[in-house]
Amino acid sequence: MDSPGRPSSTTTPPATATLRVISPPQACPPLPADPPQEAMPPVAVAPVAVAPPPVPPACAPPAAPAAQREQSNSTFAALRVRNFRLFIAGQLVSLCGTWMQTIALGWLVLSLGASGTALGLVTAAQFLPVLLFGPYGGVIADRSDRRRLLMITQTGSGLAALTLGILDLTGSARLWMVAATAMLIGLCNAVDNPTRQTFVQEMVGPEYLPNAITLNSVTMNAARIIGPALAGAIILGIGTAGCFLFNAASFGAVLIALRRMNTAELHARTPVHRAPGQLRAGLRYAWRTGTLRVPLVMMMVIGALSYEFQVVLPLVARETFDGDAATYSLMTAAMGSGAVVGGLAVARRRRVGVRPLGLIAAVFGGVLLLAAIAPTLPVELAALVLVGAGSVAFISTGNATVQLAADPAMRGRVMALWSVALLGSTPVGGPIAGWVAQSCGPRAGLALAAVAAFVGAGYALLSLRSRSSTDPAAPAAPSA
């Protein structure tokens, strides 16, 4: 057989005409051969030049658009990007360490003789910087090379974890030292959260962004199952200091992943130049843009009152079902399992926007209400599996909606507001949820969470009826 792309010749029985047939280009499939014909008697004819066959218009790129859409809709589509594979692997290790530190921090505070109120204050110290300085962290993310900035924030968090480990290991830890270190971690998170979230799009681009965000949420919830289990074993074996030291080492996995990335494969962006008024410009832009304002307000309400599970579930376990710490752990594992399974299911969906987000918020409220009225512990656990799936669906859909709607020059500041709504609202929503659960019963705390989700869904529905919110085009971002 002749090589593709080279002309091939055939000779007919003694005929004076020579036919030249040009093979199709290599990128196109070969043309079907002509059916065999009976030999004709020799006829003298003048030489005729036969034009090469036309190139079929169907010779397109190897993957048809439908196939490409099918690939981008697959559950693990974003993992085709090497940089994102490195990132997600480092994140899994680091998040396991983070959950181990979360468990150990509570035990360390209580072992220092602190009360439950003091434990709440230490927890608030970790999230308060996100509430106060989160928007400015977004400004820093927009101004900086995000990959290098992540290396700095991850190193800072690792050093803070190492400090806790050394203080605990040497027996010199005091409550004020633990609170100060927790606040340092919060300061790092105020910059790290918007930077890390916006860096995802630089790795995978807008095509794979919804899938990548969901896989990132699945990774977080998988670590939510693995980390506490490892923490329990390490605390029993060598004490809480081992968890802090493991977490400090786990940040090395993220640093190695960031270092090994191929920067040429990142989706290029131009950092925003430093200028006065950039923080105010970001706030005005987010408020004027309906496709940003609606998800952010929804997250502010739902994040403050529907995601306070660390406050409500311990009370549900102890008072509603007369359980203990093992019951609480079982509830947490049920939510984590639902989040992993639900996240993998949501990963195939690419629908984002205010309407899908409102529908998911309504479903989230429904399963929260089911958890609030569950009559027995098995029914409660089944409801919490659904709650976990609904929670990851709402967060990942809202995150993708906000990122895709934001102007690239404003994306860091917008995602900082998203982090403030999700994490920074804990110092406000936690005490409210705790007071309702303590005064009216733990089931009332879950009912409050359901009401907040329904309010968010209703706000989304009302916004869709407004002309300003139905315009999909976001206004141009102010020059910053």
Strand order of the largest sheet: 1-2
Q: Distance N terminus to C terminus?
A: 63 Å
Number of strands: 2
Structural class: mainly alpha
Mind explaining what this structure looks like?
The structure is a single chain. The chain has 480 residues and is mainly alpha-helical. It has 2 domains: 78-271, Up-down Bundle (Growth Hormone, Chain: A); 279-480, MFS general substrate transporter like domains (Growth Hormone, Chain: A, Up-down Bundle), CATH 1.20.1250. The protein has 16 helices and 2 strands. The protein has helices at residues 65-72, 82-111, 116-143, 146-170, 175-237, 240-260, 278-288, 290-305, 309-320, 325-346, 354-373, 377-405, 411-424, 426-440, 442-464, 467-470, and strands at residues 8-9, 20-21. It has a two-stranded antiparallel sheet. The longest helix has 63 residues, at 175-237. The relative contact order is 0.13.
Give a short synopsis of this structure:
The protein has 16 helices and 2 strands.
Topology:
Layout: E1 8-9, E2 20-21, H1 65-72, H2 82-111, H3 116-143, H4 146-170, H5 175-237, H6 240-260, H7 278-288, H8 290-305, H9 309-320, H10 325-346, H11 354-373, H12 377-405, H13 411-424, H14 426-440, H15 442-464, H16 467-470
